[in-house]
# Entry
Amino acid sequence: MFQLISTILAVVLIAVDQIVKNWAAETLIKGDITIIDKVLYLNYAENTGVAFSMFSDNRWILVGVTSLMLIAVLAFFLSGKVTGKLEVFSLSLLLAGGVGNLIDRISLGYVIDYIDVRIINFAIFNFADICICVGAFLLCVAVYFSDKKEKAEKLAKENEFSEIDKDLEKIFGGENDD
# Structure
């Protein structure tokens, strides 16, 4: 059920991303909008690369790499092997962001960016980028805690068998020879 909700959320996030990008293309092309002076602006930009414009002007390579990554995430998402809610949620964010930017890259040849943080020298980005970054961060958190939980369960199981061995030793005396 949670996977279905996360899938619907991913579709909604893709739609939100595309609606905001269309608004940015129509509105921000006329000029920047100041949100917080000298800190945060909405500024229309076309990015033919990825983060910080790396790999600019490699449209079809980026489409191919992004498509392969999205197929891997989607396969993992649909495999049934992902059971944790945080993992499912993080994968839905990764899918939404990846698909949102892929739509731009295929249809326009570039990704529309519009969030401009000027308090630091930072790249202009968009809602899909936020989904990707938050999804990647949450996936790392989920994997970290899943690994910790797995180790704790293994240790508990080992301790449980250790306690059984001690009980057998008390009952039968000496070492237990099977």
